[in-house]
Sequence to fold (126 residues):
Amino acid sequence: MKSKQAGITLIGFLIVLIVVGFFGFMAMKLVPAYSEYMGVVKAMNQEATNGVDGKTLDSIRRDLSYKFSMQYVDDGTITPSDITITHVNGGNQLNIAYDKQMPFIYNIDFLVHFEKSVPLQGTIAQ
Fold:
């Protein structure tokens, strides 16, 4: 009686290992950008719950940049022009939209776009 072997060969294992390693390397490059985004969201929610009565857009930007430093958000990631306030449905909304570029391999980069809006409590000074 012949016994049939089952399993993966060494070459098959190496191919699987290369594919898993490639996706692991991609994750190592992308996870820091998403954890930084979570810090941005946390800072925005803190600013929204504190209220903005009598604050100007510049003071809100200063407060956010201070909170970003506490959340380990890189100084070069978000510029003041990325932070805007819009009037929606009779209220104000804080918007942040920015792009993050991360080098991957040789001349291949990842470009990730982040965008978040939160409603603000209070009135903004002009």
Notes: The mean pLDDT is 89. The helical segments are 10-50, 57-70. The chain is about 45% helix and 25% strand.
